[in-house]
Amino acid sequence: MADIARIAGVSKATVSRALNRSVLVNQETRERIVALASSLNYTINIGAQNLRLKQNRTVGVVVPFDSETRQHLSDPFFLSMLGALADALTARGYDMLLSRIDAEQIDCAAQPFDTGRVIGIILIGQWRQHEQLNQLAARHVPIVVWGAQLPQQLYTTVGGDNVSGGMLATAHLIEQGRRRIAFFGDINLPEVAQRYRGYCNALAAHALAVDPQLRVSVSFIPEGGTQAVQELARRGVAYDAIFACSDLLAMTAINTLRDAGRHVPADVAVVGYDDIALAAYYHPALSTIRQPVRAAGEALVGALLELVDGRAVASAQLPTELIVRATAPLKELP
Amino acid sequence: MADIARIAGVSKATVSRALNRSVLVNQETRERIVALASSLNYTINIGAQNLRLKQNRTVGVVVPFDSETRQHLSDPFFLSMLGALADALTARGYDMLLSRIDAEQIDCAAQPFDTGRVIGIILIGQWRQHEQLNQLAARHVPIVVWGAQLPQQLYTTVGGDNVSGGMLATAHLIEQGRRRIAFFGDINLPEVAQRYRGYCNALAAHALAVDPQLRVSVSFIPEGGTQAVQELARRGVAYDAIFACSDLLAMTAINTLRDAGRHVPADVAVVGYDDIALAAYYHPALSTIRQPVRAAGEALVGALLELVDGRAVASAQLPTELIVRATAPLKELP
DNA sequence: GTGAAAGCGCTAACAT
DNA sequence: ATGTTAGCGCTTTCAC
After folding, report:
1. Is A6 (CB) below 7 Å from strand C?
2. Domain membership of residue A287 as a residue range
3. pTM reported for the whole predicted model
């Protein structure tokens, strides 16, 4: 900027004003300076500007990975969420700083905020770290979490309606005549626990008993579906349907069933979760619960910006939707 | 920092030194200051530090989207590349600033660099913007592009070996007895053009003619596979194999073939490209060309950091690998 | 309408 | 071993 000022024969102050389109500066001078700057490929240094203005238009997006499986950034659902967040932030003129951290050390998530790099944090994935998240919120770190609403929660969450998602999936299977519905998912994760509640609710609503033998605790790794089907075989329990807590789980489960000579949906109907892009292209096309990813991105960003402005924000639940495709079709096959 | 200094009864300089673990400060004083800072959740403001030190540990990752299709961030391959980059950068202690821009205005990609936010740019996706990329490089913007090596190229690329990828796929199909191999992809894109060259090479090596009727120009949208299969039907050309330039294209093509009553691989063998996570879980499991995503992330980051250090970096080609699965198996089915 | 000067939070000579 | 001071690149009173 000093260079520009020297070449243009004015002071730094004038250059600054010209570049910020201040009305205080002579139209002709302003145009001359702007032209000069652009010919020199000069742009205001945002770091210095931020320092002076104590402002910042960068939001931190943190994706925790499971220390054992390192799985998260390979999960198509979280990846598509990233895309939605990038879009939502770009649309509002904010930049996105992406970090990955160990899920066991969620407190590190606040680091980009503490060091002044970002104005707030969006955390994709709640895992089991409820307490640590509460501590961050108590420290007044502006943070919004994609996940489930929990009791005594100090931080803001945006999430799908997991209870209703679980109910929709299970009710659909019941209505198609299924009675022995297996549940695949780790209910230590809050979101999965809520889906399981929905599953139980739907069974109860149809006067069906919950058989704990039908619930298989598997993590969100791709092989989970295979493991779960094998576990059911080991237990020797009969089932005619599966509700899997992710599409990946559902797909690998179906592959394993097929290898075992069982037909989908004839022998076993399957409903997945998330409606990732490939669910529609899988064969047979996957029936699933859609999570509204684009809306989620918007909602997360909106909530965070409110928080940053010092306004309190209630946690939000986004509607989930049953997408009926071939693995659990409407008309029961004979 | 001034606060800490006041409370600790020392000067800002001492606090700065203590927090940077300088040996110049009394051990006891240092520990006292560090403890005080951490109890106050104080961390050095990186923006101010960067300004003073004229340093920066942030790298810009830019993902262009096609103005018409807006497709890129939904493409599983690019998304997984993002994950690999995030990992590679995190491992080296760099942060990642993610932006999406219109592919038609690639020059905007340099903005985070021009404004001093990042030390260099990694661009995922070369598209057709060869000239604009050359201009950026000519301006000495440190930039590394995931894509194909092109003649008169001033910028650095890291990419898969597309020619060899095309050859591997095509040769495999020929060796399994296929003679009429369709090619799905838009050869206006440099990477696809190279894959097509590999395809032609493989045909030539087996003394087979290249039939232009077998090449269908489709973009990387999911519906591309469907469109391409329909286009071949419209043309009325016979074929017994498909080499598709992405796994998504391959999958939707297979679905469309199936709807038309043609069997994969019996009637039509199919090889995809990328080896996205779901290729293995598709049914039938997809034969494909694997692009080494993790290595790509490492290579892109490594190359960029070299550039930033002022060293010249040659473009790199990463090996591609044929993954034989069910859609184009080793033993030809009768 | 424009310039001089102070200061955002930090570090590194240079003193002491 | 610690304090003083200047300055990174910018904006913004306050003078002129």
Report:
1. no
2. 162-291
3. 0.93
